[in-house]
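User: Structure tokens for both sequences below?

Assistant:
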Amino acid sequence: MGGGATRLYSTLTQALSGSPTLPFPPSHLDPHQPENTNLDPDFCQEQRGSPVCPPDPVELLRKCEEALRDRPPRFHRKFIKINEGDSATIIPIRVMQWNILAQALGEGLDSFVQCPLEALSWSRRKYLILEEILTYRPHILCLQEVDHYYDTFQPVLTGLGYSSDFCPKPWSPCLDVEGNNGPDGCALFFDHSRFEILESMSVRLSAMRIPTNQVAVVTMLRCRTTARCMCVAVTHLKARSGWEWLRSAQGSDLLRHLQNLVQRHVGGPEGDLSSDIPLLICGDFNAIPSEEVYRRFITSPLSLDSAYKKLSQDGLTEPIYTTWKIRPTGECCTTLDYIWYSQDTLRVDAVLDMPTEEQIGPNRLPSFSYPSDHLSLVCDFSFKEKE
């Protein structure tokens, strides 16, 4: 699938440009994903037309570790407790944010000059990705650059008790890579035993009312433990220098969609920002903390804060890096990924720390130890008591 596939997909999505919000599931919009997708034989098998996956996360994690037995040690990361919580009876809500690196881009366009080709193979990376997810077992999992949703992540994680939504990019660069697995996009998974879904939508982000190639998944969930609602979004903003203005506009558009969704569920008047429905916004913003889109979020009337600032001594500084890679243009070590949360209604209980430079190694990411050029962000949250 190359330029022809891109043109076919672009033709299909042109009809959507007048409406940035699409119903779920979006799979019917994707001509590259037939209804009966070939499932990954290492994790799934077809039985009378239904996918059967390993039902036990411990069993699946053991399978991943066995497949990776010849690799270097995993990064040792530990949770830093921020707040012990008011009650030991309420299990915190664990959230993972991760740009997992689209397989087609890793092999074709991203040019990680210090990473051996063998380390970029899907036969190895899929085990590393699932191992990372299964190690931390988040209740909410937000992923970007997902191009193996239908054959791997959706059937495997469904078998482990997750529900999910996926939104592909309208013009995914993956489609220009020979032998690709379809378009990449954003995926949001949630533990069905912890949450029930109230509403979900796919958003094509706009800039000055013009639809762009970037997307978001926005979901309203209700916690089965507390009966409280939570609005969760996952997004991936425009990459590269020179597009700062576009990222700022996309961020503003996403905030508008979130505000509208919350208002629908609280029944408040338009413009009323008072709500006890917290927001969680996970994403690869492709923006450093000094960019305008970051300032828009931090100064938003929605009272948002960035959870990973909790790792700093002053509580005001982002990590030095969430991505570290070497490309032909040079080395890039910076912070682009964030977990935003409503600080008036949510409390950060713990944050997973970052691996050290020594752990990452001189060839940086991805590597035989780690499958992506972005590090996963993992936080434990709990609801604040209503006043």
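Moving on to the next sequence.
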Amino acid sequence: MAGSEAAWQAANMGVQVIIHEMRPKVETFAHRTGNLAEMVCSNSFRSDDDEQNAVGLLHWEMRAANGLIMQMAGRHRLPAGGALAVDRDQFSESVTNALHDHPNVTVEYGEITELPEHGHWIIATGPLTSQGLGAAISAETGADALAFFDAIAPIVYAESVDMNVAWLQSRYDKGETEEEQKAYLNCPMTKPQYEAFIDALLAADKTEFHEGETAGYFDGCLPIEVMAERGRETLRHGPMKPVGLTNTHAPENKAYAVVQLRRDNALGTLYNIVGFQTKMKYGAQTDVFRMIPGLQNASFARLGGIHRNTFLHSPTLLDDQMRLKSRPHIRFAGQITGVEGYVESSAMGLLAGRFAAAEILGKTLPTAPQDSAMGALIHHITGGAEAKTFQPMNVNFGLFRPVDGLKGGRRGRKDRYKAYTDRAKEAFSEWLADQS
């Protein structure tokens, strides 16, 4: 996804771009197609609120910069309350077609296994960098690539959900239309059902790691069984929280916990189980997930899985133009740089594409302003983070410089977030205007 956005931005600046894509010639276990920008873990770009949410602000900045990813996400949007969710197949096909149709873009299919010696390059290999290229990067940087483990949530056929038990509702009825307000399927649990589910989850067979691997999970994408191991109530205060939902079959009964499923395609035939990334073995998954009321007869289009993600120690290896310090003709973008999430990865691709194109055109493009969402992210990964404890990071307001004179704490949060987003939009708009 980062590479697609980088190519789009550079091509629109008048630079001839070649995209090297190893799929489908060289496959990964997580991908299903050879399309560019294929979504694997989820079909959601998360919140689209550009006034009170940092990722929604990032959406705004990418749209302002004529971002391909946001353009196609808007075109294939699905109802998801206040979130931006898409039909993942239509989305990736449209990104692929847009790049194939661009007069300045050529797509070559085949694996790159060595760091190129000459030219201008952006490595945006995502979380699943191939073994050959990963070894070349590791050899150049003089250190083993860092890694953490990411998990994939299962997808259920909608027709197999028992709608006598489940109901349609977005949390707090969020959304401007009835379709948005009913964007999620909800499966309620009583306390005994929840306790039995947690017991089964903890006892289920899990995927084992190979010798030498350690489970350094990213907190934003923890497997549900890992969350359950942290405490029996953890899931009930996380993806299974019952707040903001009323069971239309029994309005007087307050659910102890609720499992939500989000629409995964435009037809509404597929739903993914929200927050249910898992490392359980396939047989255990079907047994445990069918304990969820409403999913007792569920059929699965895809079961969950787990994979190893690699990322650079960017604070020590990359400059503020996303160049590898030891080989400045090579830039990195996307999740491999230590950002986490589709939106963040795409945003880093947007910056890398613009930086590379400007350099080719003999221009100097300053990095994104620190008070913008993109600037806060790139500042974090290229020097703002504590190098010794560097880990993948989602965009969040904790990365932003404080606004003077505003109240701290939860009570002042709404005014504070609005001040952050107003300031960011102004700074980012000025940055874009200086390039025109």
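User: Anything stand out in the second?

Assistant: The radius of gyration is 22 Å.
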